[in-house]
Amino acid sequence: MLKYVIRRLISTIPTLIAVPIICFLLTRLSGDPTELMLPMDASDEARTAFRALHGLDKPIWEQLLLFCENAFRGDFGMSLRFGEPASTLVLERLAATTELAVASLGFAVLLGIPFGVIAAQRRNSLVDRAIRNAVAVSQAIPSFYLGILMIMVFAVGLGWLPTGGRGEVSNLVLPALTLASGLVPLIARVTRSCMLDELRRDYVRTARAKGLKEYIVVWKHSLRNAFIPVITVIGLQIGALMSGVVVTETVFAWPGVGRLAIQAIYARDFPVVQAVVFFFAIVFIVVNILVDVVYALMDPRVRYQ
Amino acid sequence: MTQKSSPYFSELRADSVSHDVVLSIAGLRTTFRTDAGEVAAVDGVNISLRRGKTLAIVGESGCGKSMLSLSIMQLLPGNGRVSDGRIDFEGKMLVGVPEAEMQAIRGKRIAMIFQEPMTSLNPAFTIGNQIIEAIRAHDKDVTFSVARERAIKALKRVGIPAAERRVDEYPHQLSGGMRQRVMIAMALVCEPEVLIADEPTTALDVTVQAQILELLKSLQNETGMSIILITHDLGVVAEMADDMAVMYAGRIVETGSVSDVFDDPQHPYTLGLLGSTPKISEDAKRLVAIKGSVPPLFRMPTGCRFHPRCDFCIAECKIEGASRMSEISEGHFVACIRAPVEENCRELAE
Fold it and tell me: Would you call A210 and B137 a contact, using CB atoms and an 8 Å cutoff?
C-alpha cells in the first residue's frame, strides 16, 4: 500500500515540472503588464524601472529559468498589483476555497448517494421518477443563475442566510449548495445505475438468504460495492468543482482562489496567475492520489494486487 | 417413524402434520408477471421433505426447480410471487408470512447455498465478516469476538485449512471449491433444520464436486438436518439423496425413493432422463436424447405437459387431468395415465 502511494507520488513529478513552464509561457502571450499597471501618462523611465523591478526587461528564456529556480523554492515572485508575495496571497485564499470545496463535496455526497440508492431501490416508482426529474432539472440550471436565485430567495426574500462573504457557517451554506448542485445529479445518477447492477448480483441473494434485514442488504452490502465506481466519478468531478469555484466565489463574494485568479488575469498579474495555476495543479494531483488510495481501501481486489 | 408411509401423498396429507416430515409443499403455484402476461414457473407442486433425509429435485434447466426453492425462501425476483398453495414448515404455514418473520427463519431455520460460489459471496467483505454477520443477524447478544470464534469453528468444520488465517481473507483469495465450503459454513453456522442446496456442485471441478458432496453428507450425519438438493445431475442424486422428485415444465412428474425411481422409472420423462445418462457398466451404446425441448412458459401444452415429446403419447394424454398423480407402489407416485409403461406400452418400448 505504502509502496503504491510512493510510486504514485513519483509519477507526478513530470506534471509538477511541466505545469509552471506551460503556465509561464501562456501568461507571457497575453501582453505586457506595464501598460496596464502604470498610468497612461507614465514616463519612459518609470516604465523601464517597473520592468527592471519585476525582471520583465530580461530575455524570455532567462525569465523562465529564473522563474523555475524561484518556483522550486516556493517563491513565485511579488504580486504586481498587491505588492505581496504571490504564494502567500494564493495560500491564504486557498484555505477559503478548500473550505468551500469540501463543504460542497460533503453536500453533494450526502444528497447524491441517498438519492441514488433510494431511486435504485424503488426503481420505476413515483419516488424514482421524482428523483430523476429533480436531478435533470438541477443539472440543467447553470450555477451562476442558481446562485443568484438562491440569494434572492433565501438571503434577500426570507432573510435566513447572508448574501455573501465568509465567516460564519451560515455564510457557507448557499455557495456550497450552489456548487454542489452540479455534482449531486451526477453522483445520484451514477449511484443509481451502479446500485441497480449491484442489487442484481448473486451476493445480494446470499445476504437475503442469511436472513439479513433489507436495509443492511442495500446500504451495507450493495452500496459498499456500488461505491467504488462512484468514487471514481467524484474524483473526476473535482476538476469541474474547481472551475465551478471561480463562478460561485464571484457570485457570493467568497474570498477564494477563484476570485483571486479572475482579478489577477484581468490585471495581468503574472506572478499571481502562475502561483494560482501551480497550486491548483497540486490540488489536482493530491486529489487524484487520494482517490486512488480510497479506491484501494474500498476494493480489496485492488489492495492485494 | 413410518418411513415408507407415502410422504408424497400430499393431496390427502397437506393439512395433517406428519411427524417425520419437516417441510411439505402442496399445490404450490409460483407465477411471474411478464410482457406476455402472467406465467407459472411452478404449477401445482406437491413434495415432502423427511426429517434428516435428502430430497433431490431433478429436472432440466428451466423446469422451475430453482424457482421452487426460491419460493420456499420467499426470495423470488421482484415480478414473481407464490399465487397459490401451501408451504408447511414444522407446523407453520410459510406462504403469506410477514417479511420480518421470514427474515427470522431465513438463515436460522432454513438456509440456502447456491450454484455460483464465485459470485455468491460479497467481494468487499472478508469471509469471516460475512459469517459473523449471519450469526449476529439471528442472535444479537453474541459478541463480535464470540461470533468470530464460532466462524473459525464453522470454517474448520467444512474442512478449510488454516481457518484462523483464512477467516480474514477476502473471497477473491479463495478457489471455487473453498468458496463453496465457505458458503456451506455460512449456511450451517446457525444450525438450520433445512438446507436448500441449489446446484451446489455444478460450477465446480469434478474432483471438487465429490468433496463437496461428501462434506454435505457428513455434515448431515453430524447435525441431522434435512436437505433439499436441486440438481440436474442424476449421478449426484444417486450419490446423495434418499428421495427424489422429477420435475418437468413446472410440475412434478414422478416422485419416490431414489431406489424406486431409479430401479423402476415410470414416467416417460424419467425414462428419458435415465436413458440420457452415460453408464460405465454398460457397453458404449449411443446415448438416447429426449427429442424436442422444454416448452416455453407461456405456451404450455394441454394435458400432460410432456406429451409433445413423448413416445407413448395417446389422445387421452392431451386432455386435462392427464397429469394426475397415481401411486404405483407404496410411496412411489407418477403423473402418467399410461403408467406402468412397461405393461401398457411394451410393444412401443421395444
Answer: yes
Q: Which amino acid is at B319?
A: I
CA dist B233 and B209 (Å) reads: 11
In three-state secondary structure terms, A299 is coil
**Whole-angstrom distance, CA of residue A294 vs CA of residue A117:** 20
Helix ranges restricted to H, chain A: 2-10, 13-28, 33-37, 44-53, 60-72, 86-121, 126-140, 143-150, 169-180, 183-199, 202-209, 214-216, 223-251, 257-266, 270-298, 300-303
Nearest to B120 among A202, A214, A301 (CB): A202
Question: Can you give the pTM of this predicted structure?
Answer: 0.80
Contact A209 B121 (CB under 8 A): no
What are A105-161's pLDDT values in tens digits? 999 999 999 999 999 998 888 999 999 888 888 888 888 888 888 888 888 888 787
A210 contacts B133? CB cut-off 8 A: yes
Residues of A in contact with B154 (CB under 8 A): none
